[in-house]
# Entry
Amino acid sequence: MSKVSKTDAQWREMLSPEAYKVARRGGTERAFTGALWDEKRPGRYRCVCCDQPLFAAETKYDSGTGWPSYWAPVTPEAIWEREDRGLFMVRTEVLCSGCDAHLGHVFPDGPAPTGLRYCMNSAALTFEAASGASAAEAN
# Structure
């Protein structure tokens, strides 16, 4: 798959202001405010910019942080990582491999089997419920 590339104006036109701020400008939504942090239905999480599958509901868990957290991406190729030295600390930024959207950060304090916590922003993701998944399953 070739990388999705758009002008800044095109990204601004297609994304909500919050999604643009997070995905294209490396912002972060406030904890416990994103639409997907407590989503529990079966399904798949996709990039808000290019629709690439990124995370499966089976790898999502409640990290207690207020952001959607996963212990692994759908495939290693779905994302790429780089060092982030912002905010006076060193972290590992996670980006979509399909369009370079900023998704969040990964930390080495997650559950088995990987020990990783992919702490993502809801604003950078869309959710596709598995066929037959109902709102009742979210409770």
Remarks:
- The chain has a mean pLDDT of 92.
- The chain has one domain: 8-129.
- The radius of gyration is 14 Å.
